[in-house]
Write a structure and sequence with these properties.
5-stranded mixed beta sheet, alpha/beta, 317 residues, globular, Metallo-beta-lactamase, Chain A, RibonucZ/Hydroxyglut_hydro, Glyoxylase, beta-lactamase superfamily II, NDM-1-like, Metallo-B-lactamas
Length: 317
């Protein structure tokens, strides 16, 4: 028996909504599609992530215009996965900023990731033929970079390698607001196929110490108090720790990739199986955990062909 590939069977449209997070700060929140956001400054707007295609980004811009008609001058990419960034060309004239790790990730594997994700998430790539090419940042930074809207600091900060090589948060220290990208998910499947899993768990410990009062996760509902923010961080870490521990135990008993996947299913489904996209992410997560535990330091590049081969190996019987 085979199971529908990745999210190919997901045809339910989700309409993101603008959610006010604080003074002039907004999330663009879906049920469980990738979240975005924007910040209205004195004379311009900063956008956090851009949606998967120009068509979908234009819908985002239309909703921003219900809040402000100021020009959108800056786009910040929390990291590079095609479902988050390929709408960037719709923000004409804006400066695109990312961490240096994200810039280098795009150069190394951007095209392969794009082609892979179009097959994984067909619903999310509306009018994909409009995408003019890879999203390349005009500015990149190492560690930390700040922008100022009057007296308000908007800080872009990278704490190391996690969900990908280049993840960085958008952090408003005075407001306690964090856009985490996919470093944190709120009751949604945690994708680790391109991750440095053990390093990621350390980053989550660091994020928790920031004590965010408002958190926009990569997927799932925004949270509006310190306790709920800490809980979302803890749940993400727990997902990753359970994944790593389960695969390590199966590997120690001589299990191959299929055996590790079956062990992870058995251990994780009771706790996380009702989370959206859990069944989508788990094969990729187990594959990466298997490699990392076997000493393969850097994630192997996913291609559309490799995706299908993995699915056939783990999801058919």
């Amino acid at each position: 028996m085979s199971v529908s590939f990745a999210s190919a069977a997901d045809t339910k449209e989700q309409r993101p909504r603008v959610v006010e997070l604080g003074r002039d700060v907004y999330g663009y929140i879906s049920e469980f599609d990738p979240n975005c956001g924007f910040i209205v400054g004195d004379d311009s707007i900063l956008v956090v992530d851009t949606r998967p295609t120009p068509k979908m980004a234009r819908s985002f811009i239309e909703d921003i215009r219900q809040v402000s008609d100021k020009p959108i001058k800056t786009v910040f990419l929390t990291h590079y996965h095609a479902v988050r960034v390929m709408g960037a060309s719709a923000f004409e004239g804006a400066t695109v900023i990312s961490s240096r790790g994200t810039h280098d990730w795009i150069v190394e594997r951007g095209q392969a990731d794009f082609e892979s994700e179009v097959y994984r998430f067909p619903r999310l790539f509306q009018a994909v033929d409009e995408v003019p090419g890879l999203t390349m940042p005009q500015l990149s930074f190492d560690g930390c970079m700040s922008m100022w809207f009057g007296d308000r600091e908007v800080r872009f900060q990278q704490f190391g390698r996690g969900h990908s090589q280049g993840d960085a948060i958008c952090w408003l220290p005075a407001d306690g607001i964090v856009f985490s990208g996919d470093l944190v998910e709120n009751r949604c499947g945690v994708y680790a196929g391109d991750a440095y899993i053990r390093e990621w768990m350390g980053i989550l410990d660091t994020l928790k110490k920031l004590e965010p009062r408002v958190l926009v996760p990569g997927r799932g509902a925004a949270v509006f108090d310190a306790t709920a923010s800490a809980a979302a961080i803890d749940m993400t870490r727990d997902f990753l720790q359970t994944l790593l521990d389960t695969v390590a135990a199966a590997q120690a008993q001589g299990g191959d990739l299929r055996a590790c996947y079956e062990a992870a299913q058995a251990a994780m489904r009771p706790r996380f199986g009702d989370w959206p996209v859990f069944q989508h992410v788990l094969p990729f997560d187990v594959s990466r955990a298997f490699d990392e535990l076997a000493g393969i330091a850097d994630p192997r590049v996913w291609t559309a062909q490799r995706d299908l081969e993995l699915w056939a190996a783990l999801k058919t019987s």
